[in-house]
Amino acid sequence: MRRQLTKRACDECISRKVKCSGSWPCDTCQKAPKEVDCTYLKPPGRRGPKVRRRTNKGRSASDGSIGHVHTEEAAIRAHPVENRPVNHAAVHADAEGDESLSAWGWRKETCIPITILVYIVRLYQTFSHSVWPVVNADALLQQLEDGTHDAQTLCLALALCAATMAQLQLAPLAGGDNQTVDSGLLKLECMRLRERSDYRENLDAKGVLVSFFLHVYHAKINQRKSAMLFIQEAIASGRLLGLDTKDRNVAFTDGVVANEEILFLLLWVSERGYAMHLGVRPSYNDPVELPDAAHLAMNTHARGLLELFKLFVTFDKIQTRRCTRSNSAQALSVASLAETEAALSALAFNSDQASTRLADCYITREWMKTIVWQEALSQRLLSSTSTTEVMTFRFPAVVGRDLLMSLQGLTETDLLPLGRDQLLKCFEVANSLADIVIYTPPRSFSNALQAGPQDLLHALYQKILPFLEQDPVLKSILRAKTAEALVMAPARLGVGLVTRPDVEEENISDYSLTAAS
């Protein structure tokens, strides 16, 4: 009786070139002397003998060829680059055959099941569309389910799914033949198919979005250089297509790209925010053409991005100073820092936009105010007797209070789609607040705060605790600092928080702080 072959071997057995049972975990990995990871993440290879290609090696002088063998090097010398014929069919040919990648070929090309892509796109539609409102999920789902998608659409779906899985911290999904699909595999498939589609010459808006979502993916897994390169690639591609102007050189035909008027604005805001994290200069410094007022009035997503745009424009003076690393750079004055903080505090946000986008604006503003205070601290401009609040040591407590008031009423579901970027911003606010609780005497704080800084720190820590699970390092740092601060100044029971003018009183009345456990 013929032995039944295993459909798919695990990655460990493939690398060790041993027999695999095809189960998960397989028998070989279970019997290994040391613990190994039994995974099925690598794309399956092609089975069977390699296809032989006809070459010129067997030709002789009798069949009309010259007596010596024509090598590839000799052919290159015989045909200059500018006169060399280009076989476009061979450029898009399959790696193991000569069949060109037609629409059907692209649908059969990826090893990712379409059902998994459809599932993740629906998650994007539910949770992350308000964060990246540039993909029409309904149109994309229809093309994936009907099998009418082309190469660019498939690459966009793979990049979008990789970014969504990384953003929402989704566990790997089970595919066919004991295969598991995670964000890393989706990214690899996207980049492999993208290179084969010659995307640089066939550039369109979908290609711009692929670069953007690859930036999001690498940012979420903390690969900073790759993330910065991909967002700069998206910016450069958008400029080539004229997305930064009202006279765009690209047509949006199949409806997969949505809100094209704010596409470049999303790229601009994303690059600005990530450049601030890295402390580098952004690549795009020209004035940005904003969408028409009529479009802003009808589109809540456009209004939300415009408010983020105003935040970054207000902060540009501070950002330029932080990115200037030379010793001759002129330091910012007290008046300039105070003016920037006042401008940030004066910005009001429309409450009719999506709660996730509203939380993004609030967190970004308080984070920028914290950076202003840190800049003043680094220049030794703080004073306990200063009449300017941002120049005092108690200012992080004010920022922590404002952040708590802003996030009041927002649930974990509202904050989860924001991902790791907003976690880092909340961490900086809480970390600065913990520092002043530890190193500043309690009498330095005004009674007008009602709640002491230790109460605010405890409440803020409890608010962001579910998201700290995404980063164990940040969690351990903030947990240790919070514990040290609360030992020195324990949080009190039943302390009400000060209301802000733009927050309704009844929303705050039921909010109370609990003692640290």
Automatic annotation (TrEMBL):
<keyword id="KW-0862">Zinc</keyword>
<feature type="compositionally biased region" description="Basic residues">
    <location>
        <begin position="44"/>
        <end position="57"/>
    </location>
</feature>
<feature type="domain" description="Zn(2)-C6 fungal-type">
    <location>
        <begin position="9"/>
        <end position="40"/>
    </location>
</feature>
<dbReference type="GO" id="GO:0003677">
    <property type="term" value="F:DNA binding"/>
</dbReference>
<dbReference type="GO" id="GO:0000981">
    <property type="term" value="F:DNA-binding transcription factor activity, RNA polymerase II-specific"/>
</dbReference>
<dbReference type="GO" id="GO:0005634">
    <property type="term" value="C:nucleus"/>
</dbReference>
<dbReference type="Pfam" id="PF00172">
    <property type="entry name" value="Zn_clus"/>
</dbReference>
<keyword id="KW-0238">DNA-binding</keyword>
<keyword id="KW-0479">Metal-binding</keyword>
<keyword id="KW-0539">Nucleus</keyword>
<dbReference type="GO" id="GO:0008270">
    <property type="term" value="F:zinc ion binding"/>
</dbReference>
<protein>
    <recommendedName>
        <fullName>Zn(2)-C6 fungal-type domain-containing protein</fullName>
    </recommendedName>
</protein>
<keyword id="KW-0804">Transcription</keyword>
<dbReference type="InterPro" id="IPR001138">
    <property type="entry name" value="Zn2Cys6_DnaBD"/>
</dbReference>
<feature type="region of interest" description="Disordered">
    <location>
        <begin position="43"/>
        <end position="67"/>
    </location>
</feature>
<keyword id="KW-0805">Transcription regulation</keyword>
<dbReference type="InterPro" id="IPR050797">
    <property type="entry name" value="Carb_Metab_Trans_Reg"/>
</dbReference>
<dbReference type="InterPro" id="IPR036864">
    <property type="entry name" value="Zn2-C6_fun-type_DNA-bd_sf"/>
</dbReference>
